[in-house]
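Bumping my old thread because nobody answered last time. Still need a sequence for this structure:
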């Protein structure tokens, strides 16, 4: 297995439950123990991590210019450094996957997997929440919220936004609610590696976890993958290889190995083994981040994702998230935060491509925003404008860093031109359907699967980490059943 990140850690733990399988997990970064203090600190904003060896920084071109995308490069991957928001997406997202021919991926199939993965301290056990899964989930308490988040929450209630007790319950949306987050009883972050690759699991005879083991390429015998080569030059054999290197690096490894669009590969002197649209259909959640400031301390101890307005511009289908991001604890003078207004829709026309030269990293282009984005986000801008006038916002002493009128004609388009940021939810670069079958096997190649954010055919209207856990749990079930039937193998 290549990549011990969000999905990879889950998959390795589950596959090694099957004695017939021998699993070698190769992770490019260090073990989570080496980084324990930061991995387990919920209040650290991801921005604090910039420059650390455990973060891969990849430039991404957006319509508003270049931005640097962070990816966790350590055991646990992005789940060890993300904003902690723990959301499932909407039933219609998964029903659309099934309607596109992906059997077993509709809401009726995946809801049970989401429930089984969690121990929800606030709402489990119940019809829609679990109490026995590896991921501990709860919502931040009022006293843990920062001043800005508290004022945002209370101000939106004041201007008539409905209160949502559980934003993972689609029947309660849209409205303002507190993010569910994956933290333990002491409010410490629990990455997927901490939750699934426990000491007991890592002691299994059929699981080998190798960190600081970067995979450079795939080894083939004809159209069959027989192993991987490491950056160190070492080669390892396997009956099956699973790429779980994330939405940027899984397609990159495929492209480098001649699996991708033939014309693009030819431009880089790579002969195509199979002509597949790898890296051609990337989705992401994008939108403007509008800076505000307020006087006084940040307050609270909660992590980056605290409260969120889950919006529906047509009153029904979730199509935006709006919430303050940052600052981090410790700031106590003129506190600046960013009001993020993310579109939950994506054109799916972003890309991951080879760069010039074998050592060049992936060239990443964000998807252009769908044409109706200004109209949809206009609704969010109106709600934030109403919040700015609320007693809670005025009491906070909150004002935009640059004066603005969010209700002025063209306000959204102008903000998108200058202030577009990414929610870091890149998915769909090796989608089930065109690139993979519904069991995540690469079409036209034997012995090769992908299992991470890349496989999502379209982006769910919610944060993507929990979706990666769901994907890994479901792929594990399929592989376990195959292994039991076939009598074993090396992954
Ligand atoms: C800053 C930030 C904040 C975010 N906040 C949230 C949030 O609050 N909620 C949410 O739901 N989502 C959030 N996301 C998105 C979410 O975390 C990701 O969509 C998800 O975790 C991706 O999981 P993955 O398994 O696809 O990849 P990753 O978790 O990135 O795992 C990939 C792993 O592969 C390893 N790897 C890569 N290349 C190689 C190689 N060649 N050889 C060996 N190993 C390799 C990497 O080191 C990494 O450990 C955030 C993302 C970022 C970057």
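Sorry it took so long. Here it is:
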């Amino acid at each position: 297995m290549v990549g011990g990140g969000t999905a990879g850690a889950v998959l390795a733990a589950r596959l090694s439950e099957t004695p017939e399988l021998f699993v070698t997990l190769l992770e490019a970064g260090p073990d989570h123990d080496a980084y324990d203090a930061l991995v387990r600190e919920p209040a650290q904003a991801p921005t604090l991590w910039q420059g650390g060896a455990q973060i891969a920084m990849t430039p991404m071109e957006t319509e508003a210019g270049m931005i640097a995308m962070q990816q966790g490069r350590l055991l646990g991957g992005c789940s060890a450094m993300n904003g902690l928001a723990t959301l499932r997406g909407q039933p219609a997202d998964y029903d659309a996957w099934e309607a596109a021919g992906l059997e077993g991926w509709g809401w009726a199939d995946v809801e049970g997997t989401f429930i089984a993965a969690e121990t929800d301290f606030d709402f489990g056990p119940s019809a829609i929440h679990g109490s026995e899964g590896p991921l501990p989930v709860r919502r931040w308490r009022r006293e843990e919220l920062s001043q800005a988040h508290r004022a945002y929450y209370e101000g939106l209630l004041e201007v008539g936004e409905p209160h949502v007790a559980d934003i993972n319950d689609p029947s309660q949306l849209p409205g303002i609610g507190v993010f569910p987050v994956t933290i333990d009883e002491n409010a410490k972050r629990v990455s997927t590696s901490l939750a699934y690759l426990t000491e007991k699991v890592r002691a299994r005879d059929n699981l080998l976890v190798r960190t600081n083991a970067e995979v450079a390429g795939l080894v083939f015998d004809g159209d069959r993958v027989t192993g991987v080569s490491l950056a160190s030059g070492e080669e390892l054999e396997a009956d099956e290889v699973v790429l779980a290197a994330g939405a940027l690096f899984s397609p990159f490894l495929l492209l480098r190995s001649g699996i991708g669009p033939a014309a693009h590969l030819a431009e880089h002197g790579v002969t195509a083994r199979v002509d597949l649209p790898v890296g051609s259909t990337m989705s992401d959640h994008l939108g403007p981040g509008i800076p505000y400031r307020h006087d006084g301390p940040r307050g609270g101890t909660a992590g980056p994702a605290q409260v969120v307005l889950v919006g529906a511009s047509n009153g029904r289908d979730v199509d935006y998230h709006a919430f303050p991001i940052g600052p981090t604890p410790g700031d106590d003078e003129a506190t600046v935060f960013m009001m993020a207004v993310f579109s939950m829709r994506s054109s799916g026309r972003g890309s991951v491509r080879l760069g010039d030269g074998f050592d060049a990293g992936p060239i990443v282009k964000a998807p252009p925003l769908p044409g109706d984005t200004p109209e949809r986000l206009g609704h969010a801008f109106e709600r934030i404008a109403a919040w700015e006038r609320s007693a809670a916002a005025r009491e906070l002493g909150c004002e935009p860093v640059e004066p603005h009128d969010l209700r002025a004609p063209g306000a959204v388009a102008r903000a998108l031109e200058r202030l577009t940021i990414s929610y870091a939810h890149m998915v769909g670069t090796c989608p089930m359907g065109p690139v993979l079958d519904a069991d995540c096997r690469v079409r036209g190649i034997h012995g090769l699967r992908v299992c991470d954010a890349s496989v999502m055919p379209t982006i769910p209207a919610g944060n993507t980490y929990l979706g990666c856990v769901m994907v890994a749990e479901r792929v594990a079930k399929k592989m376990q059943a195959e292994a039991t039937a076939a009598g074993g193998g090396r992954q």
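Residues 76 and 340 are 26 Å apart (CA to CA). Let me know if any region looks off to you.
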